[in-house]
Amino acid sequence: MKKGLSRRNLFKFMAVGGTTAVAAGCEQKPEKIIPALVPPVEFEYMPNTGYQYMTTCRECDSGACGMMITAREYRAQKAEGNPNHPLNQGALCALGQASLQTLYNPERHAQPRSGGEVISWEDAQSEFVSLLQQSAGQIVYLGRPTVGSEGAFVDNWLNEVGGGKRIAFSLISRAAEQRACEIAFGRSDLPDYAFENAELLVNFGADFIETWGHPVQNGRRFADMHAYSDGKKNRCIHIGPHQSLSGARADEWLPANSGTEAMIALAMAYFIHQRDPRYDFLDDYLSPYSPELVAGDTGISVDKIRSLAEEFHQNSSLAIAGGTWNSSEQATATQVAVFTLNAVANNLGKTLR
What confidence tens digit (pLDDT) does each residue in 40-76 have? Predict the structure, then answer.
């Protein structure tokens, strides 16, 4: 049939598509038009219309940002933060924005494989079940840190398939912080750092707007804390041998010698404890860390340690710790020292909770 607009085609297009089809001036087969007019039975959609789906971003180990995916014609096209999520409140970091690159990565396996060869889903399930039965009680689940009920789900699954062990692996581990929390407070957990309630933030090397903790939430909370409000501006002090991106946001940098962060925290705690003793059992623990004894090793003067401790004590304050030393042998001890500083300054339940 010769292409073009005939009298017969004119009435056909008017009946099917209206004036937009007439304007095309060429023939389109009905089977290409009907699917757009009659949505599939399993899912109703309008062509060229975006639909938003709420989900959770898992691009980093904090894995808790609410995410909103915009999809058109069955395909995800844009990732944004969920404005109704309590943690990120609509913000989304660069990793979350780039999550579509993971989804559409051409190297991503679309089918199960065995020995490098593609196999059917039925064969893969059969082989997987067989291996589980052979390895009952000796299964190791290696994955990233879990959030929400995900950990309990994996534990229940391991129990149902014969028992095993769940191991969480992270390139930027917070295991030392969790262990320190158990030592200091008797609870193996990670605390909540309420930046927005602090008038003075003392940061012992934590990259809190880069990789430490929940960067999106930390950035929002830090902005609330550090903004000029009611005629004043709260302060942030960075203590560490080098300035990170987070450290560059501080009002003052104290270039302490590497590995002495715990000594500075305990010296501040000693100074505060001498003037406002809250925990008698800390007397022996803090006695070797007076400012006079640690100043030479830390590279921070006695007067500076004293003035910083005084400011930390007199204001609503918060101390946090992290950085390169967080993977060293001193990691747990340093975190305990910083928790101790927060405790003697009466920050528990206020800025550390």
Answer: 556 566 777 788 899 989 888 777 899 999 998 778 8
SS3 of residue 254 by DSSP: strand
Reading the block at residue 48, the tokens are 């060229």
d(CA 344, CA 317): 11
Looking at CATH, the fold of the domain delimited by 51-103 is given as N-terminal domain of TfIIb (2.20.25)
Q: Can you state the percent helix, strand and coil of the chain, rounding each to 5?
A: 45, 15, 40
Q: How far apart are CA 75 and CA 73, in angstroms?
A: 6
Question: What is the token pair recorded at 276?
Answer: 């406002």
Residue 292: CB partners within 8 Å, gap ≥ 6?
A: 302
**What are the residue ranges spanned by the domains of the chain?**
7-37, 51-103, 113-168, 175-344
What whole-number distance in Å separates Cα of residue 324 and Cα of residue 137? 37
More confident site: 185 or 7: 185
Assign a CATH topology to domain 175-344: Dimethylsulfoxide Reductase; domain 2 (3.40.228)
Identify the H or E element spanning 139.
Answer: strand 139-143
pLDDT tens digits, 226-267: 988 888 889 999 999 988 889 899 999 999 998 899 999 999
Going by C-alpha positions, the residue among 79, 63, 67 that lies closest to residue 149 is 63
